[in-house]
């Protein structure tokens, strides 16, 4: 039973991979072709040297020295990044705190914390994205800006067929409870939920990779269940060999009319073959051909977060961490309506700040997804793969110019149609007057939840300064208040996790 929920996780996972995305509805219909983006050419204003960070006030530091705070950027510089719907960082931190330990600060990624939570964005009427942008003042001189991107949901019955290649880690480290046992039962459940037009292949790896069953119609459930039952732990972790074999099988069985996915299930503790994400992805580049996307499902108390995250970010995919029946139900079963179809390929965001109203800004997270300004409209540059009904949120700390008014920023998203590769864009602008007057009074509850989550991530990263001056006790109080307002169990749990982190200082 315990692992049955993991595969529901996997089902949703398989479904979730093509379903990355996010945001909120812009004024008017979202673009379905290359639209004229909102005006982003602002008048030049002399920019002083980088402003000092906002004092941390009563911020309650976690153990050890504070990390270096990511640099603020002058308003004249565009903020450009690839969309990312990973949530593994929050899932692993949540598990660590429930085990009575603080997560490694280097494994805390604010964007994955925020994107793990439900948003309140309206969906577009058609394919592509709706753009949402709002925010609130944290003081007279600073504000928190939220950019949300949302795709339209899809009916599960209308999705295209799925070709799923599962690459399963069966090395000795997967023998611990909550690893291969969850994966095996999850795969059994997945097989029973797939439709007659779907197909599954299974590759296992330890010292070497082994094709357990080639691409097989989901209707042949008996054969698939037998292959799953043969998965047993042994040997070392040659993740490179497993992924190469998996991509070879996915390429061999590639169906143009289907959604083609490689789904890696592992604790990420590679110790044989090439153990670097770049070396591994270089080996599968010819097979992937940007036609097969990757989903990394992390399991286990000891978890190779960096390798799994980089494989996902650079392999046209996403990373999710699953540790328990409850976690699997919350992350996957509840999100099962997200279908395998893609809404957008190589999706990127670019935010232009008005130097007349903004002195500087700082994007919270997305360090591993940053792009050069010129990469935004270069469709040869990799972005994020986004599927139906998903939201991507980006938060910015903004330093305002004194007594400012007028346009604050313009957010633009660019993507390619999954089939035709035709590029399209949608934009939305926000004015200073649209900001709420106080971060904790007036904004929507979901914006406030995002603020609590981002501030919590900063505390776990041991980063001081910025717009968040609240200590952990205050953040826990905000989370409890917002849990009542949203009636969201995840927000209730968030308050408990923040209190736990405070007790572990």
From TrEMBL:
Domain (VWFA): residue spans on this chain: 163-336
Pfam families in the cross-refs: VWA, vWF_A, YfbK_C
Keywords for this protein: Signal
Chloroplast is among the record's keywords: no
Keyword Protease: no
Signal peptide: 1-24
Region of interest (Disordered), ranges: 26-75
Compositionally biased tracts (Polar residues): 34-47
UniProt cross-references to SUPFAM superfamilies, sorted A to Z: vWA-like (SSF53300)
PANTHER family in alphabetical order: INTER-ALPHA-TRYPSIN INHIBITOR HEAVY CHAIN FAMILY MEMBER, INTER-ALPHA-TRYPSIN INHIBITOR HEAVY CHAIN H4-LIKE PROTEIN
Protein name stated in the entry: DUF3520 domain-containing protein
């Amino acid at each position: 039973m315990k692992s049955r929920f993991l595969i529901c996780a996997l089902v949703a996972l398989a479904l979730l991979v093509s379903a990355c995305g996010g945001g909120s509805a812009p004024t008017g219909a979202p673009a379905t072709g290359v639209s004229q983006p909102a005006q982003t050419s602002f008048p030049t204003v002399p920019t002083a040297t980088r402003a000092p960070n906002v004092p941390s006030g009563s911020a309650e530091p976690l153990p050890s020295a504070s990390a270096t705070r990511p640099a603020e950027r002058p308003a004249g510089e565009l903020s450009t990044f690839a969309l990312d719907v990973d949530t593994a960082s929050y899932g692993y931190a949540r598990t660590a705190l429930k085990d009575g330990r603080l997560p490694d600060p280097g494994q805390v990624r604010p964007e994955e914390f925020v994107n793990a939570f439900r948003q309140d964005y309206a969906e577009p009427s058609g394919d592509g994205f709706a753009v949402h942008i709002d925010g609130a003042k944290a003081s007279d001189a600073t504000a928190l800006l939220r950019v949300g991107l949302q795709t339209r949901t899809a009916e599960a019955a209308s999705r295209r067929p799925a070709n799923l290649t599962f690459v399963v880690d069966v090395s000795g480290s997967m023998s611990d409870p909550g690893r291969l046992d969850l994966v095996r039962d999850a795969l059994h459940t997945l097989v029973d939920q797939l439709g007659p037009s779907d197909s599954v292949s299974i590759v296992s790896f330890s010292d070497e990779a082994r094709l357990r069953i080639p691409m097989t119609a989901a209707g042949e459930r008996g054969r698939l269940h037998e292959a799953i039952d043969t998965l047993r732990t042994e040997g070392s972790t040659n993740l490179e060999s497993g992924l190469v074999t998996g991509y070879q099988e996915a390429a061999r069985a590639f169906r143009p009319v289907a959604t083609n996915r490689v789904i890696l299930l592992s604790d990420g503790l590679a110790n044989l073959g090439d153990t670097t994400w770049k070396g591994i992805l270089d080996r599968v580049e010819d097979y992937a051909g940007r036609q097969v996307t990757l989903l990394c499902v992390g399991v286990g108390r000891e978890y190779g977060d960096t390798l799994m995250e980089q494989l996902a970010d650079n392999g046209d995919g996403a990373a999710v961490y699953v540790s328990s029946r409850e976690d699997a139900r919350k992350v996957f079963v509840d999100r099962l309506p997200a279908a395998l179809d893609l809404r957008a390929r190589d999706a990127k965001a670019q935010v232009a700040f008005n130097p007349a109203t903004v002195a500087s800004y700082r994007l919270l997270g997305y360090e591993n997804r940053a792009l050069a300004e010129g990469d935004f409209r270069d469709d040869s540059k990799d972005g994020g793969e986004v599927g139906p009904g998903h939201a991507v949120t980006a938060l910015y700390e903004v330093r305002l110019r004194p007594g400012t008014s007028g346009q604050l920023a313009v957010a633009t998203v660019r993507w390619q149609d999954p089939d035709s590769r035709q590029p399209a864009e949608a934009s939305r602008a926000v004015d200073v007057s649209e900001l709420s007057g106080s971060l904790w009074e007036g904004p929507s509850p979901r914006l406030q939840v995002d603020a609590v989550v981002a501030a919590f991530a900063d505390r776990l990263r041991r980063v001081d300064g910025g717009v968040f001056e609240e200590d952990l006790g205050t953040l826990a109080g905000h989370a409890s208040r917002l849990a009542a307002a949203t009636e969201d169990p995840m927000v209730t749990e968030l308050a408990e996790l923040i209190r736990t982190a405070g007790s572990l200082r």
